[in-house]
Structure to design on (582 residues):
């Protein structure tokens, strides 16, 4: 497995692969790899001839410096994960290589997708995401890139960016991977203390309760959001960032829910922010629900 | 010579060229081609194996709808110019292909380069330029792209964007081409009436007068700018948009001029806006100066 820290090294390698007629599939990550990332890498292997994984904790997408500081880092273990999964090249640039002093170019998707959910909670977050993704695409020059559905707003914004800027990259969305108790995998889960980890299962359970209410005929978005909120807020040290019913096209908030809507949520457990969502009327989540 | 209106057609052609090992050089234009463009195309031929010229009057870089409407269009003649110069492919996308309804992604260079000269006079202009250039790069996938030095702030901003986003494109700057009397070539010159065309030579003459004053020891930027302004403002129907002494690095205004500065100007002649600049202490412009 190759490992590159320099932009030019990664680009030269990618160019050689393309000239040899290889299809490059790409999984951009912030490291702290877990089974969710592994599923993205497996998908990448099935979509391309060679797989590149980038590991870069992108400072431009953190609105909160403490959150950036606390983001888990485990480079040796990440390297072993990539090695064991048969990744061909790992791109691990330094912050100085990616965002040198004087850096001043940004890519931004404006409009409805930027006016709800995480875009409101984390100002500048998606500008940072779009900027680093476009830059990584310019360096890695992939044919396709795999993103997890868990970060659905991120995926939709990146799809919009790629479509608008005519980037020659196919965006592939891979399903959310969950723990046995239903909690969506996230690098941030590592930061949960035991109590918060136990309480966090209220997120998928609350989503599923709202989904069951929707399937039973409830269409009032406030009531669906309340069904979720009641479930998570029964615990201590829990703060609700948002719980919103939005249309899948454009992420516009809906007062009346329909089967083209998701319930998207962000919740702090003892300061650790987790996000998740459910497609209303869609498949149930694998959670235990007490009668 | 190939002609493509569809993004996918241009991209497929470019991909085939690259796979055949050809180096693609690219000249992005807004049409109304003149000898300045011809010099860019000749340079492109010497830099690559195949030359792509795009012709697209980019609506996102016009802050003034009347200016967009009045921008000269002469597609048949442009096609003949490209044909006669041995261009390999002309990319002529429609506005709907480039900026369909709902388009919402923008690329922007922020900071000092965005806080002076044309960036101030034409809000949003360079955001539109950066966006269309990044998009054209994604479509045409050139190895190098040629820009004219006349639009110096544009060139510096694009170089900054390409460097920041690690675009795999070499930016080549070709010298300004001038009429015999010194007027810099521009598609906008077509829109000058006879009187304004005669008066417009005061732009290079004023720049050269300031340059001569600098060479004679004058360092006060206000005096250098006044030397220019006095020259152009002696005519009727002339409005000075700006005349500023700025440092070549970052385009920051300088009260005291030095040989790392340019005098950059924008002047309206009967409503037609022309820009030009001179490197203070650099080569003289080919203008007649009466004693």
């Amino acid at each position: 497995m190759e490992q590159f820290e320099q932009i030019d090294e990664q680009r030269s390698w990618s160019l050689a692969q393309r000239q040899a007629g290889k299809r490059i599939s790409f999984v951009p990550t912030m490291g702290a790899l877990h089974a969710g990332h592994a599923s993205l890498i497996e998908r990448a292997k099935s979509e391309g001839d060679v797989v590149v994984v980038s590991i870069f904790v992108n400072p431009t997408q953190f609105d909160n410096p403490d959150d950036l500081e606390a983001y888990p880092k485990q480079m040796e273990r990440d390297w072993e994960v990539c090695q064991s999964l048969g990744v061909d090249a790992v791109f691990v640039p330094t912050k100085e290589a990616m965002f040198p002093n004087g850096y001043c170019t940004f890519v931004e998707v404006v409009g409805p997708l930027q006016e709800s959910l995480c875009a409101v909670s984390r100002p500048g977050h998606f500008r940072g995401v779009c900027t680093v993704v476009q830059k990584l695409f310019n360096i890695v020059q992939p044919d396709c890139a795999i993103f997890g559905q868990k970060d659905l707003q991120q995926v939709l914004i990146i799809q919009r960016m790629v479509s608008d800027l005519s980037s020659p990259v196919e965006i592939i969305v891979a399903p959310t991977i969950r723990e046995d108790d239903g909690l969506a995998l996230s690098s941030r889960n590592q930061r949960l203390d035991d109590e918060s980890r136990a309480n966090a299962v209220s997120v998928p359970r609350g989503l599923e309760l709202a989904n069951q209410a929707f399937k039973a005929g409830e269409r009032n978005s406030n009531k669906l959001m309340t069904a979720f909120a009641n479930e998570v807020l029964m615990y201590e040290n829990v703060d609700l960032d948002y719980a919103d019913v939005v249309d899948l096209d454009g992420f516009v908030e809906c007062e009346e829910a329909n089967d083209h809507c998701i319930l998207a949520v962000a919740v702090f457990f003892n300061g650790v922010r987790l996000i998740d969502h459910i497609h209303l009327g869609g498949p149930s989540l694998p959670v235990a629900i007490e009668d």
Q: What stands out?
A: The mean pLDDT of chain B is 95. Chain B is about 40% helix and 20% strand. Chain B touches chain A at residues 7, 11, 15, 18-19, 21, 102-111, 113, 130-131, 134-135, 138-139, 141, 160-161, 164-168 (CB under 8 Å). The CA atoms of residues 262 and 279 of chain B lie 4 Å apart.
